[in-house]
Structure formats: C-alpha cells, structure tokens
Amino acid sequence: MMAPLDLLAPDAVAELSRVLTAVVGLFVASLAYRGYRRNDAPRMRWLAVGIGALTAGVYAAVAAADWAGAGVGIVLLVRGLATVAGLCAVLYALLVE
Question: Rounded to whole angstroms, how far apart are CA atoms 61 and 34?
Fold first, then answer.
C-alpha cells in the first residue's frame, strides 16, 4: 500500500501532471472533433488532431519509448517528434482555406 506522503514525491507529482495534461487535452480535442462533425469543417478536424498529438500523443509516445527501455536521448527525440507533429497539425488547421 502506498503511503500518503508517496503521493507528494516528485516522480508521482510529475506523472500525475502528465496524465492530467493528457486527459484534459483529449477532452479539448474531442470538443474540436465534435465541432468538425457538426459543421463539417476540416480545420476543426486538424485542430483536434493537433491538440490530441500535443497532449495525449506526447504522453503515449513517451510512455511507449520509456516502456521499451529507450535511453533518455531517444525518449526526448520521440517527445520532440510528437510535439512537432502536433504543432504542424495545428498550423495546418490555421492556414488551410
């Protein structure tokens, strides 16, 4: 059983923060996707993809790389690539006609 003070350990706080960011990001992405479905607006679809990639996508990519036993450099590379992919999707959502 985990002691209450273990929840305040830096690693536990960091993990909780990452999970909360992913959950809130998925919620925002789902709202953008609902906007896409309601209005048939491709911009909203790309916005949903971008927000999802920036939040839950980064979390999932880092968790998978960490689970696979990748080194710190590879984990940072995976995180950076997922972030760039999400930002590119958001940029496309803003620029597409």
Answer: 25
Helices (H), the chain: 10-39, 42-52, 58-67, 72-95
* 59-85 pLDDT per residue, tens: 999 999 989 999 999 999 999 999 999
Residues 21 and 55: their CA atoms lie apart, in Å, by: 6
Residue 15's pLDDT is what? Answer: 86
Chain Cα centroid distance, residue 51:
7
Predicted pLDDT at 96? 85
The phi-psi region of residue 3 (left if phi > 0; otherwise alpha if psi is between -120 and 50; otherwise beta) is beta
In Å, how far are 16, 47, 70, 89 from 20, measured between CA atoms?
Answer: 6, 20, 24, 22
Angle of the 72-95 helix axis to the 58-67 helix axis, nearest 10 = 160
